[in-house]
Amino acid sequence: MNGSQLSQRNEPVKIASIDLGTNTALLLIARVEKDKVIPLHNAQIILRLGRNIDASGLIQKEVFDKVLNAIIEFKATAENFNVDKIIAIGTSALRDAKNGDQLIEFIYQKTGIKIRVISGEEEARLTYFGAVSGL
C-alpha cells in the first residue's frame, strides 16, 4: 500500500514513521484520519550515524549494528500497535556516506524495511511542516 492509497482510504490508518537522522533515530506511530495526523507513540534512540562521516566519508561498521537494533526495536513497537504501514527515511548522513547504500541493503536484508533517502530540499520541507503542524 503506497502513500496515495493510504490517503484515499476513508477509514483511519495507522502508520509508523522511522526517521534515521545524523544523530538520532526517531519513531512516530500515528493514526491518520483524512487530513488529521494523531500521534499515538514517539520514541528516539541516539545512534550517532553521522559520527566521523566528514572525516572518513563512511558510516562506521559498529554503527550498522546499532541501526539494526534500533530498527528491530521500532519494528516490534510498530507491530504491537498493529500498524498498516512502516515508512523509513534517511537524511543527510545516508546521503553523504559513501557506504550509505550498504547500510540500506543491510537493514533491508535483516528486517524487510526499505529506507528511502530523501533530498536535502525534501528534508527541509518535512522539517518545516513538522514544526508548524502543532501551531
UniProtKB/TrEMBL annotation:
Superkingdom as given in the UniProt entry: Bacteria
UniProt xrefs under InterPro entries: ATPase_NBD, GppA/Ppx_hydrolase, Ppx_GppA_N
**Ranges for the Ppx/GppA phosphatase N-terminal domain?**
29-134
| Cited Gene3D superfamilies | 3.30.420.40
Q: Which SUPFAM superfamilies match?
A: Actin-like ATPase domain
Q: Which residues form a coiled coil?
A: none
Q: Which PANTHER family match?
A: EXOPOLYPHOSPHATASE (PTHR30005), RETROGRADE REGULATION PROTEIN 2 (PTHR30005:SF0)
In its UniProt entry, what is this protein called? Ppx/GppA phosphatase family protein
| Protein source organism | Candidatus Kryptonium thompsonii
